[in-house]
Specification:
Largest sheet: 8 strands, antiparallel
Strand order of the largest sheet: 3-2-4-1-10-9-11-15
Shape: globular
Bound molecules: 2-deoxy-2-amino glucitol-6-phosphate
Structural class: alpha/beta
Number of strands: 27
Helix content: 25-40%
Number of helices: 18
Strand content: 15-25%
Distance between the termini: 12 Å
Length: 608
């Protein structure tokens, strides 16, 4: 999705802007641009369709200014093109704007402005903002007042940064539904839509709230509301490791993040397991045992892989705490006027903490009096702040568009929640101890799976050219199949279908042929015999089978088998999923895909 960076200070802004935009590349984009101004006046602008590297090559040496804004665009209004790339200028080339989000009444505003004589140079909704702000600029007036007045006429979502060539000592930023973070430096200030762009320069940040604006100067900032009331915001410290933003010798961020999982799982567990009472401590829930005992249902909401992680979480909660639990796509939930119940605990899942559909679902639940916990990776993100409490994953920054370590940590966080819930309901101490030990063993067991990366790469190369792939699993295995299919399609573009193994006979068996191999989750649990029968049915139709199993099934039932270490049955899905990440990764590499930035996708989907 779109990314914003801005700088004001004593130095030349351009190097930071270009580096910051490069750091935001992982979010997905199709064009990029920068604008700078300074004491010499006027706005210098460069924008191109293509990569940040193309933009950098297009920026001349004399392109200098101490105040600047930059943007990576992911097209919504108008095709990817130089003209549609941000920043956008008003007709006097005085105001420059970068914008994330969608202006819903852009057509209406465009018509009014055109009637007033404004000439539009792009098809974007953002350009409307540049002209609107310019229309409200008054002789000797403050830029912030013009921005407030312009935003008062706008319906929609935005994170914006605005430059004024006549007031080069400030940048005005505003947030409504799209994140804006201020970074506090030494006599210099940074702005970004995502901390990853500025974490190399400062760890002191302020996240703007929805409806908040800020005037940012080299020596500080002032935050205020749309009606000009000053707000007071305390900086927080970002604790992310800067090295997380490098590939550290791996060929791709995705491979690095897959290999980071033993460590990221350790961090998710750190300080939360209680061996003595065979439970988990989750300080951020903001719910005491009495309140938790009153909960009758759990509803989990997330999008994409976060939703699938929620499906695994729902099973863990049902199995360990015996509380009915269900996961639903947040993107569907928010549009169906859901019934919000006082005795239901709602749990929002998000790596980025920015996904607009998930945020909107949380806001809808809260509007109707529901209680929401967040299972979120990004500290201080919009969803984390909107929730009543929650569990931070501490998985570290996830750069590759495809989620891997955050997915795994989310399921681990649900296991902790389910254990905590279970132990205040009727999970026995013995069962609690069984889960605690199994969680402690996970990092080493994940390492064992990762050691098979090369063998899985050979398998992936053999199957990558398939017309498609079927993923099947039963009960605990079904969300694993869904996530495995999701990973394969998003990074390799190979069509993949996930089905409950039990449903195969009810339709999809017709698809089985040598051209459509099946990845089957075959854990050594109470459903093993049923799964082996399904494999027999596939082989009887000349289907090829890759089994992911704890024990190698009979030769005649499988073509290949990836063995994973056994955990407790409730936690097996976590380990069964790891080889599927590697399978998808190596298939994408074999097919020469853009692994970390797959086509058409963005890391955080901050629009509807
Ligand atoms: C995961 O591989 C996908 N890129 C996508 O489904 C993602 O999980 C989804 O967009 C939700 O993102 P979030 O966790 O940041 O809310």
């Amino acid at each position: 999705m779109c990314g914003i960076v801005a700088y004001i200070g004593p130095k030349d802004a351009t190097p930071f802007l270009l580096e910051g935009l490069a750091r935001l590349e992982y979010r997905g984009y199709d064009s990029a641009g920068v604008a700078v101004t300074g004491r010499s006046g006027g706005i210098k602008l460069r924008k191109v369709k293509g990569r940040v590297a193309d933009l950098a090559a297009d920026v001349p040496a004399r392109f200098k200014g101490t105040t600047g804004i930059g943007h990576t665009r992911w097209a919504t209004h108008g095709v990817p093109s130089d003209a549609n790339a941000h920043p956008h200028l008003d007709n006097a080339d005085r105001i420059a704007v970068v914008h994330n989000g969608i202006i819903e009444n852009a057509d209406e505003l465009r018509a009014k402005l055109t009637a007033e004589g404004v000439v539009f140079r792009s098809e974007t909704d953002t350009e409307v903002l540049a002209h609107l702000i310019a229309a409200h600029v008054t002789e000797g007036g403050e830029l912030e007042d013009a921005v407030r007045a312009a935003l008062g006429r706008v319906v929609g979502t935005y994170g914006i940064a605005v430059l004024d060539a006549e007031q080069p000592d400030r940048i005005v930023v505003a947030r409504n539904g799209s994140p804006i973070v201020l970074g506090i430096g030494e006599k210099e200030m940074f702005v970004a839509s995502d901390v990853s762009a500025l974490v190399r320069y400062t760890r002191q940040v302020v996240h703007l709230e929805d409806g908040e604006l800020a005037t940012v100067r080299a020596d500080g900032f002032r935050t205020f509301t749309a009606d000009a009331r000053t707000t007071h915001r305390q900086p927080s410290t970002v604790d992310w490791d800067i090295d997380s933003f490098d590939t550290a010798g791996y060929e791709h961020f995705l491979l690095k993040e897959i290999h980071e999982q033993p460590g990221s799982v350790e961090r998710t567990l750190s300080g939360r397991l209680d061996e003595r009472f065979a439970t988990a401590h989750l300080g951020g829930l903001n719910l005491d045992a009495r309140e938790l005992r009153e909960i009758r249902r759990v509803k989990i909401l997330g999008c994409g892989s976060a939703y699938y992680a929620g499906e695994m979480g729902a099973q863990l909660i049902e199995e360990l705490a015996r509380i009915p639990a269900h996961s639903e796509p947040a993107s569907e939930f928010r549009y169906r006027n859901p019934v919000i119940e006082a005795d239901t605990l709602y749990v929002a899942v998000s790596q980025s903490g920015e996904t607009y559909d998930t945020l909107a679902a949380v806001q809808e639940i809260k509007r109707k009096g529901g209680r929401v916990l967040g299972v979120v990776n990004t500290v201080g993100s919009a969803i984390a702040r909107e929730c009543d409490g929650g569990i931070y994953l501490h998985a570290g920054p996830e750069v590759s568009v495809a989620s891997t370590k955050a997915f795994t940590s989310t399921v681990v966080a649900f296991a902790l929640l389910a254990l905590h819930f279970g132990r205040i309901h009727d999970l026995s101490p013995a069962d609690g101890r069984r889960i605690v030990s199994a969680l402690q063993a996970l990092p080493d067991q994940i390492r064992e799976v990762l050691d098979q990366s090369e063998a899985i790469a050979e398998l992936a190369a053999e199957y990558a050219e398939s017309a498609g792939m079927m993923f099947i699993g039963r009960v605990r295995g079904y969300p694993v199949a869904r996530e495995g299919a999701q990973k394969l399609k998003e990074i390799s573009y190979v069509h993949a279908e996930a089905y409950p193994a039990s449903e195969l006979k009810h339709g999809p068996l017709a698809l089985i042929s040598p051209e459509l191999p099946t990845v089957a989750l075959v854990p050594d649990d109470e459903l093993l015999d049923k799964n082996l029968t399904t494999l027999g049915e596939i082989k009887a139709r000349s289907g090829r089978v890759i089994a992911v199993a704890h024990r190698r099934p009979e030769e005649k039932l499988v073509d290949h088998c990836i063995l994973v270490p056994k955990s407790e049955p409730e936690l097996d899905p976590l380990l069964l999923n790891i080889p599927l990440q590697l399978l998808a990764y190596h298939a994408a590499v074999a097919l020469g895909r853009d692994v970390d930035k797959p086509r058409n996708l963005a890391k955080s989907v901050t629009v509807e």
